[in-house]
Design goal:
This is Nucleoside triphosphate pyrophosphohydrolase. The protein has about 260 residues and is an all-alpha fold. The chain is about 70% helix and about 0% strand. The protein has helices at about 10-25, 25-30, 35-50, 55-80, 85-100, 100-105, 110-125, 140-155, 160-180, 185-205, 210-235, 245-255. It folds into three domains: about 10-95, Helix Hairpins, CATH 1.10.287.1080; about 135-205, MazG-like (Helix Hairpins, Orthogonal Bundle); about 210-255. It has twelve helices and no strands. The protein starts with 10 loop residues before the first helix and ends with a helix.
Length: about 260
């Protein structure tokens, strides 16, 4: 049994506590990289939610949970002689210094576009075979699409004018409409994907984040739909028994009641 201790703000104390848990706690001792990898994703999304809601007290807690996973995975790797937490800290410092020669070296970067272009060039010098290499396959599709487009744009593969983006979007919409009439399920899926990809690109052209935008719309839909449920409950009605017209009336009211 470990001795009693109080929390501190010292990073080394956190590393020590995780080491103790790996020895003394049956649950912590049993975990592997694979068994808690989904928990890491969950904690990251909880941090994102705290950012979206501007709940900085919650963000502090969630960043702590993310940090715990960094330390925990590093501890497990250390036990297998793969790497240590010191290696993790060294490698990220090394990367930051190497990829910011305009800060820690003698190169110049006049604006963020030049910084982004230099970043991709440096990554290629590090041995990357593709500009798109390193974008996780597990990312949500909207985020992954936007990151691919951003990386391609960083090296000059982008529409010069928005009018061309708009033309491409209209082209994809027309192709999707056409395939809905005569196409196979595979063709419909392909054209729908092309349309979504073009929508992400159109938003990116105006510095709009597709994932953030859709997440906000999801929240808006939830708020409005739950308003409908609340109003029907007050009217002592079951949502499964009312007409679409009744729900639409409450939906319209919800636009001013929940979005103001």
């Amino acid at each position: 049994m470990a001795e009693d201790r109080n929390p501190t703000s010292n990073f080394d104390d956190l590393v020590e506590i995780v080491g103790i848990l790996r020895k003394e706690c049956p649950w912590d001792r049993k975990q592997t990289h694979e068994s808690i990898k989904d928990n890491l994703i969950e904690e990251a999304y909880e941090a994102v939610e705290a950012i979206d809601t501007k709940d900085f007290g919650e963000l502090q807690k969630e960043l702590g949970d993310v940090l715990l996973h960094v330390v925990f995975h590093s501890r497990m790797a250390d036990e297998k002689k793969n790497f240590t937490i010191d290696d993790v800290i060294y490698s990220i410092q090394q990367k930051l210094i190497r990829r910011h020669p305009h800060v820690f070296g003698d190169e110049n970067a006049e604006d963020e576009e030049q910084v982004a272009k230099n970043w991709e060039s440096i990554k290629m010098d590090e041995g990357k075979e593709s500009v798109l290499e390193g974008i996780p396959k597990q990312l949500p599709a909207l985020i992954r699409a936007q990151r691919m487009q951003e990386k391609a744009a960083n090296v000059g593969f982008d529409w010069p004018e928005f009018s061309q983006v708009w033309e491409k979007l209209e082209e994809e919409l027309d192709e999707f409409k056409e395939v809905l009439e005569t196409g196979t399920e595979k063709e419909k899926q392909d054209e729908f994907g092309d349309l979504l990809f073009s929508l992400v690109n159109a938003g990116r052209f105006f510095n709009l984040n597709a994932e953030d935008s859709l997440r906000a719309t999801n929240r808006k839909f939830i708020h409005r739909f739950q308003y409908i449920e609340e109003q029907l409950k007050e009217e002592d009605k079951e949502i499964t028994e009312v007409t679409l017209e009744e729900m639409d009336k409450h939906w319209d009211n919800a636009k001013t009641s929940t979005d103001s």
